[in-house]
Design brief:
Layout (H helix, E strand, L loop, with lengths): L7 H24 L9 H13 L6 H20 L2
């Protein structure tokens, strides 16, 4: 039987979630807020700038991209309520 990893996507999903959770926690703690919706546009700009400085192969970029995207979605939803 050749080597394989059935359902490897489950492990990848777990790593992705861990990265996103770790980045979110770090961002919230840094800015002293409890929820992403409390981050200002200027602050998310700082987060995006940091993300852009990371090595293109950094796995943490995934988490920073998720945080920025989630923040944008929350702001959009609040504006369109």
């Amino acid at each position: 039987m050749s080597y394989g990893w059935p359902r490897i996507h489950k492990a990848e999903d777990n790593y992705e979630q861990d990265i996103c959770d770790t980045v979110l926690t770090h961002v919230l703690e840094h800015f002293g807020v409890e929820d992403l919706s409390q981050i200002t546009e200027e602050q998310i700009g700082e987060v995006e700038a940091f993300r852009n400085e990371l090595n293109e192969y950094s796995v943490m970029q995934w988490g920073y991209s998720w945080v920025c995207s989630t923040w944008e979605n929350e702001v959009y939803e609040e504006e369109n309520e």
